[in-house]
Fold this protein.
Amino acid sequence: MPTHSARLRALREQLAAQHLDGFVVPLTDEYMSEYVGGYAQRLGWLTGFGGSAGTAAVLPTAAAIFTDGRYTIQVREQVSADDWQYVAVPENSVADWLRANVQEGARVGYDPWLHTRAWVEQARDALATRGATLVAVEANPVDAVWDDRPAPSPASLSVHRDDHAGETSAAKRARVADWLGEIGADAAVIPALDSTAWLLNIRGQD
């Protein structure tokens, strides 16, 4: 699609096909990474925004992009005011904007792989005050209209030598196990890629 306006129109058509009245597009991936691969740059593809943090919310007749003070100038240079409202965070939140703009009975979608539990609870509660519903989607509607979306990197991982890491993976895992015992926990889930790489002494090539 040649223009970002066309992409926004296509997304709205896809939302209607999925029986949704809105959708939230964060700049993250399924690991909640700060820096994401090309396949997960949904916000940039949709809006043209090239910053490292931001979120978009799309409704049938309104759309907003949320950025912090680092990107006040950049977002206005890269994202069309004809299509998008500029909303500053943390002064404002996506949940508050949705509450102010949705219609009663609206179904607002989100990709459950891309949001924290805290965000889901905040958005769900805000929408409930307007009689609207937050809906987890199985298929991300942005992906459905992103025809040339890059594939995830096929790069392989490599083992980081112990003399470079400064500590063996076994020693690190033993320290984590000791800490779990101290707090009375039986296990820990570690989804963050950088934490996993540190713990196992591995590195990606992407």
Observations:
- Residues 158-203 form one domain.
- The chain has a mean pLDDT of 95.
- The beta strands are 22-26, 55-58, 63-67, 85-88, 107-110, 133-136, 157-159, 202-204.
